[in-house]
Amino acid sequence: MVKLIRFFAPRGLRVERAQGQYVWDADGRRYLDFHTGNGACFLGHLNPYVVRRLREQLEKVMVLPPLYDSGILDEAMDALGRILPHQLGNVFFQNSGSEAVELALKLARKRTRRVKLVAFTGSFHGRTFGALSVTFNKTYREGYDPFPFEVEFLPFNEVDQIEKIGEDVAAVILEPVQGEGGLTVARPEFLREVERRCRDVGAFLVVDEVQSGFGRTGSVWAHSESGVRADMLVAGKSIGGGFPVSFVAVTDEVASRVEDGEHGSTHGGNPLALAALTGGVEALRGDNVPERAGYAGSLLADGLKEVASQNPKVVRGVKGKGLMLGLDLRFSPSQVIKELQSRGLLTLKAGTTVLRLLPPYVVTEEDIGLSVQLIDSVLRSYRDDLSRR
Length: 389
Ligand SMILES: Cc1ncc(COP(=O)(O)O)c(C=O)c1O
Description:
This protein is an alpha/beta fold. It has two domains: 15-33 and 288-388, Aspartate Aminotransferase, domain 1; 48-286, Aspartate Aminotransferase, domain 2. Helices cover 35% and strands 18% of the residues. The chain has twelve helices and 15 strands. It has helices at 36-39, 48-58, 71-81, 97-112, 129-133, 138-141, 188-201, 252-256, 271-286, 289-310, 334-342, 365-383, and strands at 15-19, 22-25, 30-33, 90-94, 116-120, 150-154, 169-174, 204-208, 232-235, 246-250, 315-321, 324-329, 345-346, 348-350, 354-357. Strands 4-10-9-8-7-5-6 form a seven-stranded mixed beta sheet. A four-stranded mixed beta sheet has the order 1-2-3-13. Strand 11 (315-321) and strand 12 (324-329) form a beta hairpin. Helix 2 runs antiparallel to helix 9, helix 3 packs parallel to helix 9 and helix 10 packs parallel to helix 12 (365-383). The protein starts with 14 loop residues before the first strand and ends in a 6-residue tail after the last helix. Pyridoxal-5'-phosphate binds next to helix 4. Residues 38, 96-98, 101, 124-126, 175, 179-180, 208, 210-211, 236 line the site of pyridoxal-5'-phosphate.
């Protein structure tokens, strides 16, 4: 029998079906899903807008490179035009976040002829070689060096370090809310200073919204709130309602120098992916997803703050924004994640100590109340017994 390489310990849960904010196991037991496929299912499982578009597209054409014109390509471009920042009017489709990051880095290198990149402590941009080179966590990097870029990691959110970005830098890449690294939110003045410095030294500003984007933090794009204008925006995960699709959106300046055959992708821009993306944008706009995520996020954050104040020996504080939230624990959350799963709540880890919650926007007040109660009851059992961990 062929063995699956998982790279992570299996969760010990066999999922039979999923709908909205829930999944069910083989015995019909329901779980509240705050893991959402590492955040890819922010629109909820089987989002009706996305499913309708996918069904319609399956009746038409399933394989067609975007070299050919098609109705779904027109619709996807039109949909993106309604949600992308104005200066980012050019897109290339990929399949995963890492691939899209990779393309942004390739473009930055070729356009500037510089090999140096700046990224930040706590960053996560993916696991392909270019994306890994700008990913901070040692666990993911170990054994894979040397990397194809020279990378300097500056301390995240430290404005006085930004002058270190020099004229030899091709691009600066950052997440407006660090996902994998521990749910640290970028301060608006930090983002604005990075943008200013990029302009001064002629480096591209690449904003990676693979996890934070598409309404999750309460805005369509988390970085836009600070007024920052990116040269390249990378998106993935939730944009296709869980269907694999990603893109890089770039300025006219970056796009105008694209050469024939310089880049390509067999599956990038697949008609089903474009259909899922079109349905995703319809959901985002039709269901007021950013507003709903902002409201649900504030309820969940209030609940988590209460848990933190009740359990100070166990919890350092609440992190994140919108529906990208976490509790920073005083120890690894791995065992807590297992205990929550056994009680019906699926969560994940961020950084080394953060219990990460990535609920879909369809989450209800009742779900939020239940999740807070479950987290509180698990953490209470740790309060007086930290030594057993
Ligand atoms: C901010 C960010 N960038 C890039 C990636 C990589 O995306 P993918 O796993 O789809 O390659 C991730 C995945 O977690 C991410 O959170």
